[in-house]
Amino acid sequence: MYNDDKLHEECGVFGAWYTAGNQAAEDIYYGLMALQHRGQESAGIAVCDTVGERGNLCLRKDMGLVSEVFRGEDLEGLKGNIGVGHVRYSTTGASNIENAQPLAFYYLKGTLALVHNGNIVNAGELRKDLFNEGTVLRGTTDSEVLTCIIAKERAKSGSIEEAIKKTTAYLKGGYAIIVMSPRKLIAMRDPLGLKPLCLGKNEKGYVIASESCALTAAGAKFLRDVEPGEIITISKNGLVSDKELCGGTHAHCVFEYIYFSRLDSKLDGRAVYDARFKSGMLLAREYPVEADIVTGVPESGLTAAAGYAKEAGIPFVQVFNKNSYVGRTFIKPTQKERENAVHVKLSVIESTVKDKNVVIIDDSIVRGTTIAGLIKRLKEAGAKAVHVRISSPPFLYPCYYGTDVPDNSSLIANNMDIEEIRTRIGADSLGYLTLEHLSEMTDGLPLCKACFDGKYPVL
């Protein structure tokens, strides 16, 4: 369910390198379906066979969900044993077909296709440099800048791997990138580990994806996470790992565990489900309250709510019914129409809340409009009191690494204190998870918490 009062991730990426004779497109399709939550605006797949010097690149991309962009005949026409796929939510660049991925680039030495998740903070400076050198960019994304730099470096490098490594010297920000050349698949992850990337294997070959759930969807077994700073090359010679850029400070995005990633994924050795369940338990210790039931905002608030309920000894009840057969709300042209569509998608089961004191758990409050609407509907259904608990700290600062909050002007916590927020949203009490508990939630994993504390690992 799209919600413009939530953070949104930029993209999901998927790559496959299969031995000759195996087709990659169908497995990439299933992988993208598993990553659909990371982006719903556009989808694309590019494949290449390993026959010939330059390869035979086939590409299809369009606006819409994966199931809308690809039909059976579309997949049949994508012939190749190497491929990359992408789902996009635009945080930089307009939402149009020109900015959809994969991005294909034809140059003297062959072809490249690239998929990218994240945000290159210094893309504007790099774009100016490319323009001054005579390169004309058609799109408006940092992904296109990245593609052009790789192609430029490839023209004066002995291999695509060398070109990609040279490219990393230009980049600031968080990124997970997969590049397909005619005979190789190369993946790289930013040295801080801000963006997730993992490696898997099935009987056909290797797969790489933003989340482990996508490996499973493609029939692959999870092997390991790509290390922060690591560059992996897969070819007919096998898998080669370059860890020259590894070993520095890490800062994994905390919102992957709070909200972005799918519940059944495992990132950097931590299960998303376990992290969210633990956040609820920590909330119950910090902010106990006398109540009759605990519930969560579907979907990401439900697991934290279950953790809160267990720790507090209060029954967990699912009080919202989600209608899964309603179209995407983000295509509605006005705010009022979007609000009406959300109302149709999420309704209150009145018998579960009537005359009850309710604890409701959500993963974050960005602008405050959604939680305020839910509280109002719970009280209209007969709830005596609604106590709000948030499984993250107050969102105070913009994110520059691949979400859709480029400034803090719309962040309710930046303009109000907690008591003012409580009054604005209509809650009887309000409690946020504290900063100190975030590392405990993820078992000591080094995290980027810049959206909460303003301490950016790279700018």
Summarize the structure in words.
With 459 residues, this protein is α+β, with helices and mostly antiparallel strands. The protein folds into two domains: 240 residues, Aminohydrolase, N-terminal nucleophile (Ntn) domain (Glutamine Phosphoribosylpyrophosphate, subunit 1, domain 1), CATH 3.60.20.10; 175 residues, Rossmann fold. 31% of the residues lie in helices and 26% in strands. It contains 17 helices and 23 strands. The strands form six sheets. It has a seven-stranded antiparallel β-sheet. Strands 5-6-7-8-12-13 form a six-stranded antiparallel β-sheet, covered by helices on one side. Helix 4 packs across helix 5 and helix 9 packs across helix 10. The longest helix is centred in the middle third of the chain and has 15 residues. It is elongated and about 70 Å long. The chain starts with 10 loop residues before the first strand and ends in a 6-residue tail after the last helix. 52% of the residues are buried.
Core attributes:
2 domains; alpha+beta; Glutamine Phosphoribosylpyrophosphate, subunit 1, domain 1; single chain; Rossmann fold; 459 residues
